[in-house]
TrEMBL record:
It comes from Paenibacillus allorhizoplanae. Gene3D superfamilies: Aldolase class I. Transmembrane segments: none annotated. HAMAP family: KDGDH. This is Probable 5-dehydro-4-deoxyglucarate dehydratase.
Length: 308
């Protein structure tokens, strides 16, 4: 894709998992299958080594392998972003490695553990942004919550192109979008982002990260197309039959944000396995069966919606 600063963040963003085999080694063939599935189903970009990819559990060699496979598999069809964050020294190392390996951009994840002052938060993200020539997206969630003043300063850095919100404070989001406007591209990064996308879209957020696109991308596409077209009847059906039921399962156990994706991928026949690295846990059998039923129903729903 090249390392242009004019990468568009509009549309549905794909966040592949990092598949592990039974020995907990990265399964590169399964990763390729995951990424190919996303690209073939029309996802607008691919983000490797982020939350869905268990970034926190990957060592530097595994990170290198996942980014390498991601770039090679996408082969320029859509932009490839790599996540980087946590320990500042390790994060800088990974930022620079991702650039060397041919990533098109970076998603800058929060710092490790501490809740910093705004000055510290600014210095952390500025350090990462200035350690690369790639375009970067600032990620707000957990312990990385910005004031307008801090975000304005970060938006002045030449390679900061976007803002991903995983906090869900709409008063703050309105202030950000109204104050910064087109200086940044706005991305909904909430858990199960389809749940909140109508509200984000009204604010000017043009893209979202879709966890379910890893196994039912046709639902993500039909949902977003219906949202943009104002097709409330189809939106309501997808909410009631797919989005809310999956959301309810996700809330049953911590860590299902990742392990439920792998379960869904297994249900549709993608060879990623169910293994997640501790402290995450696998999906319970009862919840797996419930998800299986939802996925089957979603296929029927999409067929009805697309056949009018």
């Amino acid at each position: 894709m090249g390392n242009q600063m004019n990468i568009s963040l509009a549309g549905i963003m794909g966040f592949p998992v990092t598949p592990f085999d039974l020995q907990e080694q990265v399964d590169e063939k399964a990763l390729q299958a995951n990424i190919n599935f996303l690209v073939e189903n029309g996802l607008d970009s691919v983000f490797v080594c982020a939350g869905s990819g268990e970034y926190q559990s990957l060592d530097i060699k595994e990170y290198e392998r996942v980014v390498t496979v991601g770039v090679a598999t996408v082969a320029g069809k859509v932009p490839v972003f790599a996540g980087a964050g946590g320990n500042i020294r390790e994060a800088v190392e990974r930022v620079q490695l991702a650039e060397k390996l041919g990533a098109d951009g970076l998603l800058l994840l929060p710092p490790y553990l501490i809740i910093p002052e705004q000055e510290g938060l600014f210095n952390y993200y500025r350090t990462l942004a200035q350690s690369t020539s790639l375009p970067v997206i600032i990620y707000q969630r957990d312990n990385a919550i910005f004031t307008l003043s801090t975000l304005e300063k970060l938006a002045n850095l030449p390679n900061v192109i976007g803002f991903k919100d995983g906090l869900g404070n709409f008063e703050l989001n309105i202030e950000f979008v109204q104050s910064l406007g087109s200086r940044l591209q706005w991305m909904n990064g909430m858990p199960l982002a389809e749940l909140t996308m109508p509200a984000y879209s009204a604010l000017g957020y043009l893209s979202y990260s879709s966890a379910i696109s890893n196994y039912i991308p046709q639902v993500s596409r039909t949902f977003y197309t219906s949202l943009l077209a104002g097709d409330q009847a189809t939106l309501n059906s997808i909410y009631q039959e797919v989005i809310l039921p999956i959301h309810r399962i996700r809330q049953l156990r911590k860590g299902y944000a990742v392990s439920l994706i792998k379960a869904g991928m297994n249900i549709v026949g993608l060879p990623v396995g169910l293994e997640v690295r501790t402290p995450l846990v696998q999906v319970e059998r009862e919840h797996y069966i419930r998800l299986e039923s939802i996925i089957k129903r979603s296929i029927d729903l999409v067929a009805i919606a697309n056949n009018g």
